[in-house]
Amino acid sequence: MDLTPKRAAESATEMVQVVLPNDANPLGYILGGTVMHLIDIAGAIACHRHTRSLLVTAAVDDLQFLHSIKVGDLIILKSHVTCVFTTSLEVQVDVYSEETLTGIRQMTSTAFLTFVAIDREGKRIHVPPLIVETELEKRVCEEAHQRRAERLRRKEQARQI
Ligand SMILES: CC(C)(COP(=O)(O)OP(=O)(O)OC[C@H]1O[C@@H](n2cnc3c(N)ncnc32)[C@H](O)[C@@H]1OP(=O)(O)O)[C@@H](O)C(=O)NCCC(=O)NCCS
User: How far apart are CA 114 and CA 86, in angstroms?
Assistant: First the structure.
């Protein structure tokens, strides 16, 4: 496993696709489940590019759908790694709609996901460090540590149910 530190820009990913009728509910809007699927994929791609390893999704934080995206519009997903821990890493995925004819863009969701790096036997492995340089990157990573603590607290709660 190559543990050379990397910048978030090296793994940042943008996915664009048109919303087709098959992706939509009877109102002509993309299904929430389809958006969640695409968020998982966009997040995973950025994390694969960072780790160059196998990964599993460990957690997806609360998800809000602020605007609907209609058939014929574009859905754009931008993902970047925000913080790396030991065997896990957090990625942010921002989702936008874009009207094909006008180009009007709206942010529709922001999601934080945690992936865990594993080898072919399913054993957890270390992930390459993230180079955190700017004040913004440092703040985002500090916030990611707080989100991680909250996730692990909620995981512990879920285990006790
Ligand atoms: C995710 C999974 C590997 C964690 O296994 P585990 O034995 O509970 O993990 P550990 O407690 O040893 O933690 C391993 C790492 O995962 C992180 N982690 C585990 N559960 C987490 C959660 N719910 N949220 C955030 N991070 C989590 C830990 O913080 C730790 O990270 P670190 O090494 O960077 O400090 C395991 O629960 C699993 O395989 N879940 C199913 C995954 C899956 O099927 N996903 C969907 C399809 S890919």
Answer: 12
